[in-house]
Design goal:
By secondary structure, the chain is mostly helical. The chain has one domain (14-63). It has helices at residues 3-6, 23-31, 35-48, 52-63. It is globular, with a radius of gyration of 13 Å. The protein starts with a helix and ends with a helix. The model has no long low-confidence stretch (mean pLDDT 87).
Length: 67
């Protein structure tokens, strides 16, 4: 196994495709999914959890570095 390919990819917030903090864009880039699906999921999660997902988003915004 090649050691260059086995290194984990860093999780960062996007600085170019962001609406607020770039957390959803970072998640979409990291997992290779459509950005609009991640954003829709975040909005849905905010309604389903009664706002707890918003607190998680804010925490991720503060903890995850920007690239």
């Amino acid at each position: 196994m090649n050691s260059e390919n086995s290194a984990p990819r860093p999780f960062t917030r996007s600085s170019s495709q962001r609406m607020l903090g770039g957390v959803c864009a970072g998640l979409a880039d990291y997992f290779g999914v459509d950005l609009n699906l991640v954003r829709a999921g975040a909005v849905l999660a905010a309604f389903v959890t009664g706002g707890t997902a918003v607190l998680l988003y804010l925490a991720l915004w503060m903890l995850i570095p920007e690239h």
